Amino acid sequence: MGRSTRRGLTTGPPAEGLDHALLASLRDIVLVRNADGYLTYCSPSVADALGYQPAELEGTRERDLIHASDVEARDDLVAGSPPGGAPLPPIEIRMHDRGGVWHWFETIEINRLDDPDVNGIVTNARDVTARKAESAELLERSLRDPLTGIPNRLALMERLEVALSRAERSRDLVAVLFCDLDDFKIVNDGYGHEFADRVLVEVARRLERLQRKSDTVARIGGDEFVVVCDGLHDIEETTAIASRIHAAIEEPIVIDGRECLITSSIGIATVDGTSVEHADPTALLRNADAAMYRAKRRGRARWHRFDDALVEEASRRFELEADLVPALERGEFVLHYEPIHELARHTIVGVEAFLRWEHPSRGFLASEQFLEIAEQNGMIVSIGAWAMRAACIQARRWRDAGWPGWMSVNLSARELAEPGLADSVAGILDETGVAPDRLWLELTESVLMRATCSATTELTAIQDLGVHIGVDDFGSAHTPLPRLQQLPTDFLKIHGGLVSNLTSDGEIYPPGCDMVAALVQVGTTLGMSVIAEGIQTEVETEILLECGCQFGQGELLARSSATPNRVPVAVSDSPILDARAPRRS
């Protein structure tokens, strides 16, 4: 390349300072600019990288190639470098090609202004556009849930930080809604993981359709979704948001012709603009999580707002979970038994086993105080198996002592979803020597309503053993009659709340009586035994008999069981019949 003169500057390659053959072979761009910032040399590779011939650039301002946002940082770096110094640390800048497209380059600057053979600052630039794009894609992927494509926990926390910063300026309200799908393990185990994954994707799409431009919808694991909303003016707005989420999720999901019905429990935590500067994103998410658990404990398919009382409750829950892990091995669980009467003959025909935890420091805990924790951490499977075995052992003892009544045991949603449940039941019956028809298994109406095909098959296999299957809390979930006919059930237990509704202020309440009579009629029409729960008064017993209800249990009947001729052999005479189940070996 010959030397030329442009704008009074001598251009062309420095004859002595640079190896021409080497420079011509490099893929990297080598640029030399003088003290005034004009290019005195461009290596041949500039043609491939930027589409310019070297002669077109030589004599032009080097900074005209560089993105305006990058020039200042580069100049600041070079300004602190004395002539003859070592190469400066690499930085990334953008340079445009002939068509105006920006490319990313990693550049290393060397100040050779004191070298007469160079007389300039040498820039070695390597095109890293592809690498930057790949890094950006990897970063984007690291912030996205791989299944649903929506933001993940990491992205959620970043966006929550941004939302809190905005609220500090605007003084508006920020809300975090923690949404957990109810009993989703049943979907996973019953329909299969692929189907369940597609359900999660559909839920994500529905939540996305609800969000405003400034909202964030994220999946933070399993069946847990979080919605962050800022710019709210009133805490009551969160109620409307939660209601819309519920409605969107509860719409039937149909995949490949298979319908799935799910509900969600939502916890809400908020912070307003006046206190946002002290808000911690992690604590805000934790508070929403605690509120969600409160919603689940209150019956699922609902929302709850975080309040100060939940702080103590969350701490207590954490402690209980830690204590629950060794409780089974320590033999801390006990079964209490409540008698079931044949109402017309005032005779005990069965008992229902209730699980209690004899906590070393808290005393006796009812099942509702700890079973939800056991459901969520999976311990319910082993605890449930222990309870069924212990109840059957007690039933065998009573049978050997001359009382042949049945033993009723509750099954949870998690146990129902566990593969091989029928085999486990068969094994316990063989081990304890209890006749299958003496074991009655209860599942709540809401659990049976959501039973999958595989769960229904498992129940049918249990029924085929001769075990009775029943619907607990009947009347609380409004099961359609066709669905009830499809389930392998032998008995119904009318919800205690409906029984207490038979009277009002001591007087017979006709609407309540009509409801119970209708439920009894459903059971008898389908050939099922009907048991009324929660009987507390003689009036309730009389009304139930008039309605045609065959069996009952509750506080009134438990007290009457204290008379010698009505107590099962070898059972204590306490109002709630109790007998410690064998400790686990």
Shape: elongated
Low-confidence stretches: 1-17, 562-585
Query: CATH architecture of the largest domain, please?
Result: Alpha-Beta Barrel
Largest sheet: 8 strands, mixed, barrel
Computed structural class: alpha/beta
Multimeric organization:
single chain
Which strand-content bin applies to the residues? 15-25%
Mean pLDDT: 86
The CATH homologous superfamily of the largest domain is named: EAL domain
Structure description:
Mean pLDDT is 86; it is low at 1-17 and 562-585. The N and C termini lie far apart (93 Å). The protein is built from 22 helices and 26 strands. It has three domains: 4-133, PAS domain (Beta-Lactamase); 143-307, Alpha-Beta Plaits (2-Layer Sandwich); 320-579, TIM Barrel (Alpha-Beta Barrel). By secondary structure, the chain is an alpha/beta fold.
Give a brief outline of the structure.
With 585 residues, the chain is an alpha/beta fold. Helix content is 41%, strand content 24%. The strands form 6 sheets. An 8-stranded mixed beta barrel has the order 15-16-18-19-20-21-24-25. Strands 4-3-7-6-5 form a 5-stranded antiparallel β-sheet, sandwiched between helices.
What are the key terms here?
Alpha-Beta Plaits, Beta-Lactamase, disordered N terminus, single chain, 585 residues, eight-stranded mixed barrel, TIM Barrel, elongated, disordered C terminus
How are the elements arranged and paired?
Blueprint: E1 4-6, E2 9-11, H1 20-25, E3 29-33, E4 39-42, H2 46-50, H3 54-57, H4 68-79, E5 91-96, E6 102-112, E7 120-127, H5 129-142, H6 153-170, E8 173-181, H7 184-191, H8 193-210, E9 216-221, E10 224-232, H9 237-250, E11 253-255, E12 258-260, E13 264-271, H10 281-297, E14 303-305, H11 309-327, E15 333-342, E16 347-359, E17 363-366, H12 371-377, H13 380-400, E18 406-410, H14 413-417, H15 421-432, E19 439-444, H16 445-449, H17 453-464, E20 468-474, H18 481-486, E21 491-494, H19 496-500, E22 503-504, E23 507-508, H20 510-525, E24 529-532, H21 538-547, E25 551-552, H22 555-560, E26 578-579
Parallel strand pairs: 13-14, 16-18, 18-19, 19-20, 20-21, 21-24, 24-25
Antiparallel strand pairs: 1-2, 3-4, 3-7, 5-6, 6-7, 8-10, 8-13, 9-10, 11-12, 15-16, 15-25, 15-26, 16-17, 22-23
Helix pairs in contact: 7-8, 8-9, 10-11, 13-15, 15-17
